[in-house]
Design brief:
Aspartate Aminotransferase, domain 1, 2 domains, seven-stranded mixed beta sheet, Aspartate Aminotransferase, domain 2, alpha/beta, 11 helices, binds pyridoxal-5'-phosphate, 359 residues
């Protein structure tokens, strides 16, 4: 229950599209920013799901969602800059911010505030050196989503600082439960000149190893992102691009099935985790992670990770791997079978009762 990748196969029609492109000899270089046909398919998907019309010229295809993150942080980071990012959050943000020479400024997400952004903390973290703010909903490692009301508060704050760029990591945009609504930062025209959207195929279509993602950029920066592509890897793998077109334009039934399967597991896990003394798990409505607090067990996150693995045989990720405010939590991925999940949680419960973790 450690790794963040769907335990499903890439749907067959998507695999077939890649194979067909190879067999048809369509395997040369493409445009640095990706094939026009794929960028058009992405623009159509954005129109359907985010209700916004995007010029395919603003879309840059990259080998995995991570590459958009890399491009954005390198473009707007660097010495003397400060970048605000969620903590606990996807560990690559802090790592690349440090690599760029910028100062990472964490925004603490806390269970006592239901893992929502603390807007006072956000505003007080902004100063004249702030160059970029990173937002991630649905989030990793929490699985949290943002309400329309909170999104509007966030946008009203962002509007006050026109020089700051925003990276909205929306890689889990399709993976939502309990009728949670997906709201994209792309839907706010007042921010359109400085928002970059990160999304892709890895999670939605079980395509983590194919390596493909996209960024939606303001036009002037799309050109620079394309240049970075050309200078480093030329273009994203061509047969993967064909597969990505089929993923967006073909039947979506596999996505729906995967999400309903995740939802079943999510409900089982939340219930069973809350039955383990010392664990406190909130009702996360997105992605495929749960991030229970283990503070009342009296154990540190690393200690819990080690016990789970070495004593009980379960892989999970220590909360502080996602930043220092993740201490006191542990991340479980439910990209695993319902049967394994039930067995794993039963084992943790039995172990905790035997040892008496509860402080
Ligand atoms: C929040 C977040 N953003 C981006 C990514 C990167 O996705 P990809 O595998 O497409 O590079 C991940 C992967 O785990 C993630 O959790």
């Amino acid at each position: 229950m450690g790794i963040g990748q769907p335990d499903f196969k890439t749907p067959e029609h998507i695999v077939d599209a890649a194979v067909a492109s190879l067999k048809n000899g369509e395997h040369g270089y493409t445009q640095g920013k990706g094939m026009l046909k794929l960028r058009e398919a992405v623009a159509e998907d954005i129109h359907n799901r985010r209700k916004v019309i995007i010029d395919p010229e603003n879309i840059v295809i990259v080998p995995g969602g991570k590459v958009t993150m890399w491009h954005v942080i390198l473009m707007f980071g660097g010495k003397g800059k400060e970048i605000i990012y969620p903590n606990p959050g996807f560990p690559i943000y802090e790592s690349v911010i440090n690599y760029s020479g910028a100062k990472p400024i964490p925004i603490k997400l806390d269970i006592s505030n239901n893992f929502k952004i603390n807007f006072d903390q956000l505003e007080s973290s902004i100063n004249e050196n702030t160059s970029l703010i990173i937002i991630n909903f649905p989030s990793n490692p929490i699985g949290g989503v943002i309400s329309k009301k909170d999104m509007e508060i966030l946008v009203s704050i962002l509007e006050k600082y026109p020089n700051i760029k925003i990276l909205s990591d929306e890689i889990y945009s399709r993976i939502l439960y309990d009728n949670a609504e997906f709201i994209s930062l792309l839907e706010y025209p007042q921010l359109k000149d400085r928002v970059i959207i990160l999304d892709g195929w890895s999670k939605t279509y079980a395509m983590t190893g194919w390596r493909i993602g996209y960024g939606v950029w303001p036009k002037e920066y799309a050109h620079i992102a394309e240049q970075l592509n050309i200078n480093s890897f030329s273009c994203t793998n061509t047969s993967t691009q064909f597969a990505a077109i089929e993923a967006l334009q073909g039947p979506q039934v596999s996505v729906e099935l995967m999400i309903s399967e995740f939802d079943k597991r999510r409900k089982i896990m939340i219930k069973q985790l809350n039955e383990i003394k010392g664990f406190e798990c909130s009702n996360s409505k997105g992605a495929f992670y749960l991030f229970p607090s283990i503070k009342k067990t009296g154990l540190k996150s690393n200690e819990m990770e080690n016990i789970l693995l070495n004593e009980i045989g379960i892989a999970a990720v220590s909360g502080n791997s996602f930043g220092r405010f993740g201490e006191g939590y542990i991340r479980f991925s439910y990209a695993n079978s319902e049967e394994n999940i039930r067995i794993a949680l039963q084992k943790i419960k039995e172990y905790s009762e035997k040892i008496g973790w509860y402080a």
